[in-house]
Amino acid sequence: MLGLAGAVLLFGRVGHAQLADERLAPFDAAAAHVAALEENPHFSHEQLHGGVRNLVSLADRWSAVRPLLKQLIDEVQPAPESISIEVANAFLAGGKPISKVTLGASRYSGFTQSETSTAWCGASVVVGFNDTGSEIRTILGGGGVSALGYSNSNNHGVAFSYVGSPPATSNPNQAVSGGPSVVCADSNNFYYASIWNDLVQSRSGVVIAKSVDGGKTFGAPTIAIAKPPFSHFVDHNWLAIDRSNLANLYIVYLDLDFSGGVCGLDQFAQAIPRYAIESIASANGGAAWSQPTVIEEECANQANPSVSLGGPQVAIGPGGEIYVAWEAMGENGASLTAREIRTAKSIDRGATFTAPVIVAPVSIVGNGADLQGLVQSSEFPSLAIGVGKANSGFVYLTWNSAGFSIPDAFTTIGSYGFADVVFSKSTTGGASWSAPVRVNNNPEGGSVPLSDQFQPSIGTDKAGRIGICFYDRRRDSNNFLIDRYCASSKNGGSSWANIKITPANFSSLVGQDVLVAPDYMSDYNTVTADSTGKLAGLIDSYSSNAAGNPNVMTNRF
Fold this sequence. Notes:
four-stranded antiparallel sheet, single chain, about 40% strand, about 15% helix, Neuraminidase, 31 strands, mainly beta
């Protein structure tokens, strides 16, 4: 990866404008492609999430952002590669800081690390995350662009080293644009999947990279799935490994399809959007991948204008069975307020899946798109499979649902839903699910102020303990300041003990970084156990704003 100082030496003083324009030309093409798709009257910004939301937001602001990036490329004075804020974070936030920011290039980007994914095998731990510092450095370089970073530990997560970006493709027209998902086979072999875009051809898909040295380095990424050009957005990919056969890997993702090939055209000859949860499989450690299997697809046609699907996750049971969970929105012609959590299962290595099973209906949080403080919201599920003697093969889910809603005239739905964290489990292989129980134990209602608990993630360890970590506003009566809490259950989720992780709460930080969506505070974080099953305990990775910018932290509990 080429640093800022190296980029300056590469471009030199002669021919800056031409080289800068050449470097930014792929982004010009991507912005034009997005603008063309946005002309479709069915295009809905509210139903975009994660990497797609950031890409579309950047395209919408490209005319303003482009001159700033061009100026960076034209800059002849070397700037420091990065400025560490690890010391500040050590005092301000719970857990261990594991990332760095890049402030040498600009004070308006390069400081956002968010949306974490963690893999833990024995002594080795890797945390992947979205990283605008990597994005700036690779834009200024000569190869492909990467919006990802990662840190690794070789002592069970006691200490981490910030590595920077995993390798991008060598093609300057391509970008690894976010959505990290990391798994491990053993203490040496790790896999890192993420969203991929060919900016000029307007192609979208998923790439995967492999490490054979415990996450210290990763090889160049290879394409696992690439959709046809000019008409697809792939988002929210999730990677899983089969512990019963470590050569078996699975990826699920959302395909937002504007081709019209499945859903057809409306009366004005505009493509009707298709939302599809799809799965691909590899039987040889990611060297080759199957064709996609459609788990569920919906058409946002006149009878179902508000329909969408999102937030898929995949996990593998002890016998190699595949579980996928996601959120369905706007079903049966209803508005976006009609939402539910769904699951499906495969017992033939992803060739076919059962019909979707409804886990529970969802009461929307916030206004259906954002929480108070303009934090992007969703009710996307987090999925884990029990591995201990008492709960082997049990399937666990957590998500957000509003416990209380109050009238609010400034929302399009006329109310504001205060987010709670809820939990459900299946002891029948996903055929049936327990009634959701509330995980956050703060009192609310009556004279007690209402607050949001949001973006939960779940893991379970060899001892049978289930952990769910989430952002929490219970300590602010005005519902702005955020803490990190982790809840634990030792009785299969019947009851939960809550522990505050952060010594001081912090504000939501949105609209500060020109390379991400104005309401962005990520879609997910992860809670992870030792995948080898040798060690008990859980590692929570999340993004803290305590130092004034989003920076990735870990906490073992």
